[in-house]
Predict the 3D structure of the following.
Amino acid sequence: MSEPRVPGGRGAVLDLPCGEQKRVRELDLGKREFDCSCGGSHAVVMDVHPPDRFLPEFLVDILQNTIETTSEDMPEFGTAHLMGIVLEEFPQSVVSKDVSDDGELGAGIVWVTDFDSRRLHEIIVELVVELMEHAVSHADDDSVISEFESQMLQFDVSEFVEEYRAQRDLDPEPYM
Ligand SMILES: [Zn+2]
């Protein structure tokens, strides 16, 4: 099935990494991914999604307390920063659009990735672990470093993502 052509003047259109197009108004706040006419599924993320869509709250707290953000618009570490990290690592696989002018959507920025929602989730967790490893390696206390390293040895990203998503699926909140 092919996507209908996108007429102009009805909200912004995203040029997807796969070559297809998607009208942002077809996405809504509760949407985590969509099936694309390229045959794949692409994750959808909006800046209004809380970062605990991907990360447990304790980790979000740590990040908010340790990561210094330079943006005045987004002083607190959040979903926009997570997507910034993904974009930096996979510039060809992420597209974004400022949709703050489009009141119908209720979001400021929307991202669509070439990956599906589950793969994106794994990537975010992997990148955050790297980020934390980097932060911890600057700690003065060697015991902090070895404690963190031993915890990370036991940390299995795909296992975590699997469990976290199963747990969040039971949640009434739609974001995932
Ligand atoms: Zn596609």
In short: Residues 16, 18, 20, 36, 38, 40, 42 surround zinc ion (CB under 6 Å). The beta strands are 13-15, 21-23, 33-35, 41-46, 94-98, 109-113.
